[in-house]
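step 3/5: co-fold with flavin-adenine dinucleotide
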Amino acid sequence: MSKLRIVTITSVTKEAAGVTTLRFHDETEARPGQFYMIWMPNVDDIPMSISYNTVEKGITVKEVGDATRALCKLKVQDRIGVRGPFGNGFKIPKGKVLIAGGGTGMASLLPAAEGIGDPGRVDVLIGAKTASELLLLERARRSSNEVHISTDDGSMGKKGTVVEMVQKHLESKRYDIVLGCGPERMLSSLLKVCDKASVECQLSLERYMKCGVGLCGSCVIDGVRVCTEGPVFSSAELRKMKEFGSSKRDECGCAVKL
Amino acid sequence: MSKLRIVTITSVTKEAAGVTTLRFHDETEARPGQFYMIWMPNVDDIPMSISYNTVEKGITVKEVGDATRALCKLKVQDRIGVRGPFGNGFKIPKGKVLIAGGGTGMASLLPAAEGIGDPGRVDVLIGAKTASELLLLERARRSSNEVHISTDDGSMGKKGTVVEMVQKHLESKRYDIVLGCGPERMLSSLLKVCDKASVECQLSLERYMKCGVGLCGSCVIDGVRVCTEGPVFSSAELRKMKEFGSSKRDECGCAVKL
Amino acid sequence: MSSLEVIVGSLALRNPIMLASGVMDETAGSLIRVARSGAGAVVTKSIGSEPRKGYPGPTLVELDDGYINAMGLPNPGIEAFAAEMHDARSSPVPVIGSIFGSSPKEFSFLASKMQDYGAAAVELNLSCPHAKGYGMEIGVDPEMVSAVVKEVRSACSLPVFAKLTPNTHRLMDVAKAVEAAGGDAVVAINTVKAMAISAEIRRPILSNKGGGLSGPAIKPIGLRCVYDLHAEVNIPIIGVGGVENWRDAVEYIMAGASAVQVGSGVGRVGLEVFESICTGMRAFMEREGFATVSQMVGVAHE
Amino acid sequence: MSSLEVIVGSLALRNPIMLASGVMDETAGSLIRVARSGAGAVVTKSIGSEPRKGYPGPTLVELDDGYINAMGLPNPGIEAFAAEMHDARSSPVPVIGSIFGSSPKEFSFLASKMQDYGAAAVELNLSCPHAKGYGMEIGVDPEMVSAVVKEVRSACSLPVFAKLTPNTHRLMDVAKAVEAAGGDAVVAINTVKAMAISAEIRRPILSNKGGGLSGPAIKPIGLRCVYDLHAEVNIPIIGVGGVENWRDAVEYIMAGASAVQVGSGVGRVGLEVFESICTGMRAFMEREGFATVSQMVGVAHE
Ligand SMILES: Cc1cc2nc3c(=O)[nH]c(=O)nc-3n(C[C@H](O)[C@H](O)[C@H](O)COP(=O)(O)OP(=O)(O)OC[C@H]3O[C@@H](n4cnc5c(N)ncnc54)[C@H](O)[C@@H]3O)c2cc1C
Ligand SMILES: Cc1cc2nc3c(=O)[nH]c(=O)nc-3n(C[C@H](O)[C@H](O)[C@H](O)COP(=O)(O)OP(=O)(O)OC[C@H]3O[C@@H](n4cnc5c(N)ncnc54)[C@H](O)[C@@H]3O)c2cc1C
Ligand SMILES: Cc1cc2nc3c(=O)[nH]c(=O)nc-3n(C[C@H](O)[C@H](O)[C@H](O)COP(=O)(O)O)c2cc1C
Ligand SMILES: Cc1cc2nc3c(=O)[nH]c(=O)nc-3n(C[C@H](O)[C@H](O)[C@H](O)COP(=O)(O)O)c2cc1C
Ligand code: FES
Ligand code: FES
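step 4/5: write tokens
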């Protein structure tokens, strides 16, 4: 049970074009990979990963529509509603961890890197379309001794996708787990790459969420509720999902191709 | 909060003519002087002092009307509902205790004597109309080294009232507290006797009770709820009550003389 | 400093937190006790023409989030109640006389008695059996309610509050009937029809079988009624149902209530409920910049 | 050993604990998941003629003792739902198609589609706006309900279940209308009209403002409805509202329900709710000497 709380924005940080981090005080304990339902009054109530997991919690919002645009316009002292933390979060095993994030995917991965608390145990690979969209690089460097970048257009770091980078790393180094978050097409290639290298992964999915608490069913993928049984799934779980990487549900519950 | 529980009668003991003790298993912790609301299905829901305060709780019922008669007819394996324990109970100070009970009043007093657990610290005075109505004598003797009896007709023990016995004891011995329970006329004389001897007392009152939880107001005496703020009141509280010893309320809430 | 004073109809109250009818209000002693505990006004138990014993026990079932009760309207009757009302004059806050009857005539008779006794207002409990019908409540029938309010209005000069039942889809019509008939305020809500059953005993727990649900369980229902009423009627609304802390009270006021009543909270929280609501509400108002309660009334509609 | 098998209308169920409409039942995958979790039958999300997005968020408020929701009937529409019903055929238990419409014609069109899709029964969600009236629910109007049930009855041969709203004093009349029109069972209750307000934000939390209360808060209300219905109609009653453990289920059955549905319990307890109710109920039946569920139906009336 996690009831609505009204919190006051304590800081607003522009991370990149169209991406803003909002911080607020919330003492609830959360695990890396969990998310909040964020109520933007008079607009909507949407899922947002926890991107800062201290008592001064944070969310990192990318403007894609009404609610995210409204959130990015907020100022210090404005109020929003939060419910959560919801979902399972990452389960981080002992050993070496490879983190692979695309876009705002990094928002939910950084608390995992920070939670490990040992920059020698975590390697981070960040992908973006282009240099100006690259997110949270400095924060990643504080929690990992090895951070690599790829951009689709080669404007920064390696040219190519983050999945190609992952593949190279898995070939040259031993990892105990790969944690990934980003667009689902990326995640589905990532799973294939990990499977090929026989490395376990945990990937964080996104689905249309309304209730956040496992009730309405709008977020199901193959009968599994992403909001409560996910958003993080293991390789074994993902392999069984017919809809993973291929289709999702819109607001009406209609299946749409990814 | 104390919700209804259904319990099974485990033993039925006839204490005297028209007085029966019912035992049942109930793990709730109670203080001496507290009471239950007892649901006798299809009949009524009435207050009954806790007369055995172990996990095998007990109530000692005197037949006076429909509900008490029905309770006294119960057999082992029958079921009743219990809510509670309700009320404040006795607050027993250090030192020497004098217990004075009239009729079924002993039912709520014995757990206090037993709770003290030192037969040398407690003297018990039991009053009854006549020998055959005398209650719980053997149990009293197990928890007190000094048990005295009075009957109105002198058929057993001293002839006279229990209040007269109290008066004598207060004159001859030092007590730190007097605990009393019985008909209200007896209690009001008892208060006077104690006041005169400058000994504190705690007396347990009875009023018409419906809810048992401080809501309906049917049990008020001078604006004080006997079910929640009582049934045990101190000398100081009792002295302030204009209705104590003089009037009570019937089921309709009408004031009636005692 | 923010002020809690309110005016409801023509009644000036030191704070908007009233005692609800049926809870610790059958005797002068208890009415005064509650008044001294910090209530802004107290409402008496609903009084009828004759003494009534009410139903045998059980009359109350305690739940995690409220109570179900079927007391059966026990009351000493209007004649005997004269003495209580007389003694209740020393109450530091207004005493509102709640009455119930089965016809307009009976209501107006009781109201004029309450006026004689010095009540500050009358509250009409419209949740009693409709004599003409099938034991349905008067309060589901706008015409009947209109007749009752008109008759009471003409028989006494006190402010007339009509207490509404939520057990109908015609609540708005009933409230409009109250307003049109000259009622000074509506009080919403009375308890919600409910039942508790014991699996082991295999029967309803209450001796009356059915009862009325109160407490936190019905707060969202009462809040919705008050919100909807605020959009439909212009007379003041007194909110009741599950209020037990300042937040509940503020929510009712923002929904449109000019004052609120506390019933179950007296049992669940204790008599300190009035003072603790007032303290919390004042702190909230200062934090949020509300100088008066009336500034908060209905703001959730903006 | 006591048996949990029941027959509701003409549907034979392995146990009487069904999934309620609107909860994890929009896709074949989730219907099958719930069926495999131990439900005796599953009811689909209410499906209408056209795809609907539902309301913007928030669509749900979580309370200590339940939820308030105003999803806004999101659904893929009856055409797109064909694929889900097709895939749901592998469900080990009956799939009941819930439908909503604003006229008898619309209901009967949807019902015959559900029949084509292989539904085991149709459940009519009568809690939607009454097109002819003021946005009042169809389910408060016995004549309208009768017309809907008759039309559906003649358009399809499936068992017809009518899901009733408790937000009216005419529930008994509505249920009798269902029975007279040939309905096979009544399902009671849908959610209770409610609201939640945020004091700090100063507005209702749900984007739709009003919503429907579900979960333990409404169990006593549902229980009362089922008890009263059992005395009024002879068709089976399916009890819904706040069921989350075996005791809740047994109470509903003793009140008169032939089966129960679980909605909020799926969120509050988890998908194990079905199995844990069945296990607890079977143990209770053995302890208390009930060989079959039908022996318990309505015993609280004796
Ligand atoms: C578990 C989870 C964590 C997320 N974490 C982040 C994050 O950290 N940062 C971030 O920027 N975004 C995150 N998102 C995505 C974010 O929720 C959507 O971008 C947002 O809801 C879009 O709302 P909108 O009104 O701005 O756009 P709209 O114009 O309403 O929608 C744009 C697209 O966003 C998606 N979307 C819209 N509403 C929802 C919803 N209620 N649930 C899921 N998806 C929706 C749909 O694909 C839609 O097509 C997360 C989503 C999920 C499920
Ligand atoms: C706190 C408390 C503790 C009690 N403990 C005991 C006990 O240990 N043993 C015992 O035998 N009796 C006890 N009583 C008294 C007992 O509750 C009544 O004798 C019983 O309720 C009578 O019910 P009836 O239906 O048999 O009689 P009725 O014919 O209904 O009533 C007989 C008389 O009992 C009293 N009475 C009736 N109903 C109630 C009620 N609901 N609440 C209070 N008084 C009522 C009235 O004075 C009434 O005139 C206690 C009462 C209270 C208030
Ligand atoms: C034990 C009890 C007795 C009640 N008696 C009355 C009554 O006599 N007249 C009346 O109008 N309402 C009566 N009510 C209803 C309350 O006044 C109130 O409307 C309802 O309980 C909802 O408020 P709450 O949740 O604060 O209790 C009673 C309620 C309870 C719990
Ligand atoms: C999130 C949610 C969505 C619902 N959607 C529907 C629906 O589409 N059709 C319907 O008939 N009932 C719907 N209901 C009502 C439930 O089926 C059920 O009648 C109600 O919630 C009471 O049961 P519960 O307390 O077990 O939840 C919905 C309930 C919830 C909580
Ligand atoms: S968002 Fe409602 S079940 Fe996941
Ligand atoms: S019995 Fe109801 S207040 Fe004491």
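step 5/5: annotate
The mean pLDDT of chain A is 95.
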